[in-house]
């Protein structure tokens, strides 16, 4: 794999304990967890704040209520005592006026009832407060001492006053002396120990009321403090839960976004570099991990598809290439075919006038010969000068006509070859033993050469593969091919023989072989060979190295056509100038 | 000594000159007498004359001619004068024309360029058969 792939495999930074822990949860679980923690903290904090605050506040309010009522009770009690005392002292001057006295006394009785009532209520109130735990034992004890100290004092005071009032029994007719005695007795009561003790209640109550008022304000402060404490706890828990929420949000979003960013980076990298062998790093088993895995699977698929596509493209390219080459081959064949039919048409059209040229040339040669004979028969009667002149002219004429005849026949040979060229393939296809066909053609070429050049000779080295499968071929056309090659071989050998003399041993080597569903024929001569330039043009139409008139330049091009186009085989040549030429004809079975 | 009467049908006018030179000796010695027609129509007109077709020994006709071609002429001739021998001459030595000519009843098929010595021999053979 390349380095890009390695880059995508970045390992997680070490030391982040929270991440692997979080990565174990799914994204939805992580979000739920975050909300639960934040909301839980907020709820718990607020609840605890409210509960604690309320507890202290309730306690403070209860104390406050207690002290307020206590102050009221104590104040009323003190007021009752003071009123009772004031009215009792008013009794002395009112002794002279029995009616007013009685009215004043009735006031005292009313106050006495109030004092009695309040006294009882206060005792019950403090006891209840102690039982409720609003006041501690110490505070209660101070009250207890107070109650014990003055226990029965108001009752006794009022009882004695009542006894006194009854004993003096003032009436409007009471004598002034009696009134004075009564006044003395009332005064004495006013200054009696009991009365002073009764006054002590009022004095002691003043201190107690002061203390109660202090306690009341302390309770108020405690209630305020409790209220503040509640608010503080709630605020703190809200702050804490907010901070936790923010922290969790950051942590969770990071745990989600980090692999997403990695995934995005991989995707961008892939789309920018087209390197589909890259893979996204899978961090964790959550939804993002699943997406990354799915993304990787998708990449696998894409890579496979790309690979398939590439293969298909290659196939298509190959097919296209083949198609193009087939097309160009077809075009070339079409060209050849149209050229062939054109050639055939031209050949036909030329053939007719050429026939006239040849026929009249032939006739003219005959006529010129007859004319020479005629002149020869009359030569005694003719003037020698005239005779020699006329003989010279007729000889020249005969020579000219012979040349016309010669070149006309040459042209006719070319036309005949061209026609054969265009007509190849018309002949019959039969099962043929290639060995026989080759041997026959070689023999024919050799004797053809000997007929032209009597001094010509060569050694044969033949090696025929006797296992050859008979082939279905156009025997006539194929025979022309081997005849052409063999004739050229004989010609090349003769050319070299002319140059080198008796030291040269001319050799024509013929071999046939069958392998890989092919039959190959090798015809090799150690004649004059070919230069690379000649070799390159050897199958071209009208290309010949023979002197003008001896070759048409159509033999090998026709042979090539027969072997390649007609029989689907191949025809190649190997040669070295001055050493050898080897023609190889291969035919499919 | 019988004279062979031969009608040559060919659109090429130079054919006459060529035949007359080629058969110069035979014409001189009256062994062969030539008539020339430049088209199938001209040939048929000539042969309409009763004496003409009666004395004709052989018709030599080219195949490729403008108007009625040689093979059509052959068919007409074989309908009108069945015993009259007809040789077809052509530069296009193709199988098909040869087959058609044979089926129409041609007595011979000659490829151009004409082998005149062979033709001479064929003519003498025909004359010998007629006797």
Description:
The complex is a heterodimer of chains A (589) and B (131). Chain A is α+β, with helices and mostly antiparallel strands and 589 residues long. Chain A has three domains: 27-250; 312-423, no CATH class; 425-589, Heat Shock Protein 90. Helices cover 73% and strands 8% of the residues of chain A. In chain A, the strands form two sheets. Chain A has a five-stranded mixed β-sheet with strand order 2-4-5-7-6, with helices on one face. In chain A, helix 9 packs antiparallel against helix 10. The radius of gyration of chain A is 75 Å and the shape is rod-shaped. Chain A starts with a helix and ends with a strand. Chain B has 131 residues and is α/β, with parallel strands linked by helices. Chain B has one domain (4-130): Rossmann fold (3-Layer(aba) Sandwich). Chain B has helices at residues 14-22, 24-28, 40-48, 50-55, 70-80, 95-104, 116-130, and strands at 4-9, 32-37, 58-62, 86-90, 108-111. Chain B has a five-stranded parallel β-sheet with strand order 2-1-3-4-5, with helices on both faces. In chain B, helix 5 (70-80) links the parallel strand 3 and strand 4. In chain B, helix 5 runs parallel beside helix 6. The radius of gyration of chain B is 14 Å and the shape is globular. The N and C termini of chain B lie close together (10 Å). In chain B, 30% of the residues are buried. The model of chain B has no long low-confidence stretch (mean pLDDT 89). Classes of the chains: A alpha+beta (589), B alpha/beta (131). The A-B interface holds A 348, 351-352, 355-356, 358-360, 363, 367, 412, 426 and B 12, 14, 18, 21-22, 91-92, 95, 112-114.
């Amino acid at each position: 794999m390349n380095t890009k792939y390695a880059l995508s495999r970045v390992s997680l930074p070490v030391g982040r304990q929270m991440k692997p822990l979080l990565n174990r949860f799914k994204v939805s679980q992580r979000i739920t967890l975050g909300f639960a923690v934040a909301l839980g903290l907020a709820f718990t904090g607020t609840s605890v704040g409210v509960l604690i605050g309320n507890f202290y506040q309730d306690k403070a309010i209860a104390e406050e209520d207690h002290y307020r009522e206590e102050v009221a009770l104590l104040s009323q009690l003190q007021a009752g005592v003071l009123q009772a005392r004031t009215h009792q002292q008013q009794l002395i001057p009112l002794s002279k006026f029995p009616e007013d006295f009685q009215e004043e006394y009735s006031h005292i009785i009313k106050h006495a009832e109030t004092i009695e009532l309040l006294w009882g209520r206060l005792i019950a109130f403090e006891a209840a407060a102690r039982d409720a735990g609003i006041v501690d034992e110490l505070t209660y004890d101070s009250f207890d001492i107070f109650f014990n100290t003055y226990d029965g004092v108001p009752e006794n005071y009022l009882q004695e006053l009542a006894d006194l009032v009854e004993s003096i029994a003032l009436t409007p007719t009471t004598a002034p002396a009696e009134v004075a005695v009564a006044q003395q007795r009332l005064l004495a009561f006013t200054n009696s120990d009991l009365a002073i003790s009764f006054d002590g209640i009022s004095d002691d109550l003043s201190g107690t009321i002061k203390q109660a008022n202090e306690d009341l304000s302390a309770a108020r402060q405690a209630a305020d403090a409790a209220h503040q404490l509640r608010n503080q706890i709630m605020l703190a828990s809200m702050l804490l839960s907010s901070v936790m929420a923010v922290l969790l949000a950051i942590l969770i979003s990071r745990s989600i976004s980090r692999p997403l960013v990695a995934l995005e980076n991989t995707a961008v990298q892939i789309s920018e570099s087209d390197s589909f062998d890259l893979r996204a790093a899978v961090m964790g088993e959550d939804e993002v991990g699943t997406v990354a895995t799915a993304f990787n699977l998708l990449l696998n698929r894409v890579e496979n598809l790309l690979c398939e596509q590439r293969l298909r493209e290659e196939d298509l390219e190959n097919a296209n290439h083949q198609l193009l080459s087939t097309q160009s081959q077809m075009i070339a064949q079409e060209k050849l075919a149209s050229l062939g039919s054109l050639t055939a048409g031209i050949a036909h059209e030329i053939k007719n006038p050429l026939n006239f040229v040849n026929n009249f040339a032939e006739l003219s040669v005959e006529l010129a010969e007859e004319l020479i004979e005629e002149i020869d028969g009359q030569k005694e009667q003719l003037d020698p000068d005239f005779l020699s002149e006329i003989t010279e002219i007729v000889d020249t004429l005969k020579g000219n006509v012979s040349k016309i005849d010669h070149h006309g026949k040459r042209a006719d040979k070319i036309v005949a070859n061209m026609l054969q060229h265009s007509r190849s393939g018309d002949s019959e296809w039969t099962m043929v033993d290639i060995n026989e066909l080759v041997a026959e053609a070689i023999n024919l070429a050799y004797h053809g050469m000997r007929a032209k050049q009597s001094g010509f000779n060569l050694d044969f080295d033949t090696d025929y593969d006797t296992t050859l499968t008979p082939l279905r071929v156009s025997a006539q056309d194929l025979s022309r091919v081997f005849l052409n090659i063999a004739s050229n071989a004989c010609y090349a050998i003769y050319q070299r023989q002319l140059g080198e003399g008796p030291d040269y041993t001319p050799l024509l080597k013929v071999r046939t072989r069958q392998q890989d569903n092919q039959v190959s024929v090798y015809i090799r001569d150690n004649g004059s060979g070919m230069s690379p330039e000649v070799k390159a043009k050897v199958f071209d139409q009208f290309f010949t190295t023979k002197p003008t008139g001896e070759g048409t330049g159509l033999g090998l091009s026709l042979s090539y056509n027969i072997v390649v186009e007609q029989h689907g085989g191949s025809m190649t040549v190997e040669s070295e100038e001055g050493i050898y030429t080897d023609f190889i004809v291969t035919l499919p079975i | 000594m019988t004279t062979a009467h031969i009608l040559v049908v060919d659109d090429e006018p130079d054919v006459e000159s060529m035949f007359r030179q080629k058969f110069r000796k035979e014409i001189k010695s009256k062994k062969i007498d030539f008539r020339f027609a430049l088209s199938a129509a001209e040939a048929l007109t000539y042969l309409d004359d009763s004496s003409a077709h009666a004395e004709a020994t052989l018709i030599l006709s080219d195949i490729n001619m403008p108007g009625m071609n040689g093979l059509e002429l052959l068919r007409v001739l074989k309908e009108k004068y069945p015993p009259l021998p007809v040789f077809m001459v052509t530069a296009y030595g193709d199988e098909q024309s040869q087959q058609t000519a044979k089926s129409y009843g041609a007595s011979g098929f000659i490829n151009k360029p004409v082998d005149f010595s062979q033709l001479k021999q064929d003519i003498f053979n025909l004359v010998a058969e007629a006797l």
